[in-house]
Amino acid sequence: MIQIPKGCKDVLPSQAYLWQYVEAAAREVAAAYAFKEIRTPVFEHTELFARGVGDTTDIVNKEMYTFLDKGGRSVTLRPEGTAGVARAFIEHGLAGSALPFKAYYLISAFRYERPQAGRLREFHQFGCELYGAAGAFADAEVITLADAFLKRLGLKKVELRLNSIGCKRCRARYHEALKAYFAPHLGEMCEDCRSRYEKNPMRMLDCKAEGCKRLAAGAPRMLDYLCDDCRAHFEQVKALLSGAGVAYTVDPSIVRGLDYYSRTVFEFVSDAAGAQGTVLGGGRYDTLLEQMDSKPVPAVGFAAGMERLLLVMEAEGVLPASDMGAACYLAGMDDASRRRAFLLAQELRGAGIPCETDLMERSVKAQFKYADKTGARFVAVLGERELAEGAAEVKDLRASSSERVKFGELADYIKRRF
Ligand code: HAM
Q: Is the per-residue pLDDT at 207 higher than 90?
């Protein structure tokens, strides 16, 4: 038996409404902030992620689905959405369009991670990116959008953690402080951390190895090394969020697992998602475009993990009730009435009423059973007498009442009562 690849999940028709519900909420909230959808390829040249996401990150070093295509080029399934959007922004010269440029995406992404609850190899993100605005208003706008999205889903126990990791200038000083702190302990640290020490010591704060984690807990904090501009920016972001009624906790341990961030970084976390507590993460990334050899344009954004959102929604009991079936099931008692039901169904669909009819030539009893199981609201029964009268016996499955309705009036009848 061929089975689904490890770390992937099927979404069956019975569960698809949950995804559509979250996606609709994402689109609605994005529209309220005037973000428009962007669609970029599932795979890109490997070089894009190596440079964009950063070659000192776990994502690039360990988790990418990279392969040679038939032309011998190295391509990678996107591990996230930001780098692809940045590439499109540069390639289409969008810096010359109306700024700020605001885009959202609903995508699948791929990371070769050890699967567990809330951590998959193919997962899905709702992300937003805003280009062109360097000031704190943009950070606050994006965080407020994220907050509105989570609230729109009914989530109440997801908390916002906020930090600033400064700019290139102040971070250089911080890197020195980190190196001085970790230097005497390098012997006790994992191999990865020893290499991070040279290339990007801030990544050492993000290590998942127990010993390294313990040491990282006592490391100097970036917040104590912010330059005046970065400090002022952070204070303004906090003030704007407080003013907008968005609650947050400053958490100096948030450094994020991608290299492109500067200044504001944030995560929305929940214990309901088990060990994988971050449902949404993002931040400012003012140097990403420069890293990709383009002229610098400041940017800020976030992405939420759809699978983790659904887990947290389930834990908080805010998943919507099950999906509805067809508005009307048209049951036929014999061949002639089945044929009439088939045609009547076409008419009803034309009038915008979702309906179904018997495709398996089953007994009326079995048809009722099916209609009930699939959540239909009305069953219109047609038999010899009904055909002669030109009217169906319409049963409201919810109210358990029934009425005679002329074929020609069926559409209006259902529309009125549905
Ligand atoms: P990220 O923190 O790597 O950031 O991922 C964002 C969210 O995607 C996570 O908070 C989590 O909910 C979900 N996620 C990540 N990996 C997995 C996985 N293996 N399985 C299930 N869910 C996962 C980014 O991707 C950045 N591009 C966000 C961003 C946009 N920053 C600025 N703009």
A: no
- pTM for the full predicted model: 0.93
**Rounded to the nearest 5°, which phi and psi values hold at 186?**
-55, -35
Question: What CA–CA distance (Å, rounded) separates 104 from 115?
Answer: 27
The CATH number of residue 359's host domain is 3.40.50.800
Same domain, yes or no: 140 and 265: yes
pLDDT band, very low/low/confident/very high, at 56 (cuts 50, 70, 90): confident
Same domain assignment for residues 105 and 243 = yes
ω into 100 cis (within 30 of 0): yes
The pLDDT of residue 106: 98
Residue 232 vs residues 8, 99, 151, 193, 254: alpha-carbon distances, Å? 44, 24, 29, 32, 19
Q: Residue 265: which residues within 8 A CB-CB, separation 6 or more?
A: 162, 163, 164, 165, 254, 255, 256, 281, 282, 283, 284
Residue ranges making up the domain that contains 336: 328-417
Mutate to test the pocket of ligand 1, among 63, 123, 139 (most ligand atoms within 8 A of CB): 123
Distance 125 CA to ligand 1 centre (A): 7
Distance 127 CA to ligand 1 centre (A): 9
- Beta-carbon contacts of 311 under 8 Å, excluding residues fewer than 6 positions away, are 117, 118, 272, 273, 274
Residue where one domain finishes, among candidates 283, 316, 349: 316
Cα 303 to ligand 1 centre (Å): 6
